[in-house]
Amino acid sequence: MSHPSRLPSPLASTLAALLLAGCASMSGSAPAPVASAAAESSQDDEPTVTLTLLHVNDVYQFTPVDFGARGGLGRLSTLRKQVLAESPNTLFLMAGDTLGPSVESTFHKGKQMIDAWNALGLDYAVLGNHEFDFGPDVMRQRMKESHFTWLGANVMDKKTGRTFGDTPPFVIRDVGGVKVGIFGVLLGKTKYSSKPGPDVYFTDTCAKARELVPQMRKQGAQIIIGLTHLFVAEDKVLARCAPIDLIIGGHEHVMMQAVSNGTPIVKMSSEARELGRVTLHVGTRSHKLKSMDFDVLPLTPEVPEDPAFATAMREYDALTAELSQPVGRTAVALDASEEANRTRETNLASFVADAYRKATGAEVALINGGSIRSDSVLRPGPLLRRDVLAIHPYPGSVVSIEVTGAVLRQALEQGVSRSAEEADPGRFPQVSGIHYAFDICRPAGDRIVRVTVNGEPLDPKRTYTLATNSYMAEGGDGYTMFKGAKYRVSPQKGKTTQDVLRDAFASTEAISPVTYGRIERLRGGSRDLAKADDPNAPTCPTAAAQAAH
């Protein structure tokens, strides 16, 4: 059997170097007595059993991504079978986030992903924040449909006093004669970022690890694995809370590796662009972990799709074909990334705002950056129906309302009111017909320093027609100043956001939007290029310094 193709990645060497450095710097270690050298040599000669852990995270669709260049669970199925043929002592893990958001999930609420993981032979998955996008009842149903085991030791149900969906606090699995213990934890921010419902709450992950790891050891676990859906900073804290041999995580959508308290932490990027493989070598007599190897297996067109997987997913063929229908073309890359659209002007956000304005005949347009959901960069080439639904997955209408200049300024203040406090606030205002500047060093509610409308200074007493989406017009994302405004185009008469975007994509042979300098972000009066969570970002000047400036 040929070996799966591998990415020449620095992952293994980086982790090895970090682990060696960590071992060398452990406090309290002393040189081993000479008398123990023979015992250590004997220990080094101990036979080992090899265990393999395959892992992915943040996988929202089963078809390839990046115009077919990466991902695809049919390819992953092929790689998994190749690895199983070489290493039968294998566990397949998924570190959270799969039910939503995706285009297919707007139709099937994540059922298609459960079918995919069942077909793949997934062993264990930790709950991710997006598992609750359709509410707790849908999640419970998806758990019943799963042929694999969900984990979420810190996700609790107020009504039962037990874990949500009665997920086990941990599992201990005999793999090749080695007892592998796995527990899963999820970030508490899920309470606010998704829809777990009022009866679901999240306990402290550190306290949970301190509680569970000794129990797992007492019940015979020889290897302890944390399967997490946390920020890497939280993973690092978790590693210092209890003795964990390995943390396999998700959530960040980028491949990363770290070591904390001697515990390796590994994550793959999103959409199964690659398959992570960790090889554990465990002593057959001591049952202790002797060493680890790390590999990254790329999912590219060179990896054939597994026909058995395609057969299992056949019921979704019609939807996949429909979503692949072209609706337009772009001559330039379209920035649909979440971070960009929630912090600054992008060519796609300006294009969407222009489309809303044109569709309603309004003087200006204002949309929340969080309404652009794809979180990707669309390369030049065909635009598909899938792209429309990925950008605007949620139902809503494009409307036009009447607002005074004072209300418009108030809306802009609301839009930037969290720009200094959050890395990517969804309320961030993307605009058409408006140019504005804001300073994150000023207090919320007084950050807008300059506004022009179609080249003229904003008139607080004048009435303007404003295009936006029905969610914002009804007060969504904190835009309560729009509630009660007179409609020029009502939600009932306005086109859907998806129809307006599709029409705009089809309006010319190939679109080529650019940025226009509509939004200027300042830090203490100077142009600000740093991200909100950048630890190296310059600090805001003092009030005295600003006054002097």
UniProtKB/TrEMBL annotation:
Presence of keyword Membrane: no
InterPro entries named among the record's database cross-references: 5'-Nucleotdase_C, 5'-Nucleotdase_C_sf, 5_nucleotidase/apyrase, Calcineurin-like_PHP, Metallo-depent_PP-like
Region annotation Disordered: where it falls in the sequence: 527-549
Signal peptide positions (record): 1-32
Top-level lineage group: Bacteria
Keywords, ordered alphabetically: Hydrolase, Nucleotide-binding, Signal
One Pfam family it belongs to: 5_nucleotid_C
Biased composition annotated in UniProt, kind: Low complexity: 535-549
Recorded family membership: Belongs to the 5'-nucleotidase family.
Protein name in UniProt: Bifunctional metallophosphatase/5'-nucleotidase
UniProt source species: Archangium minus
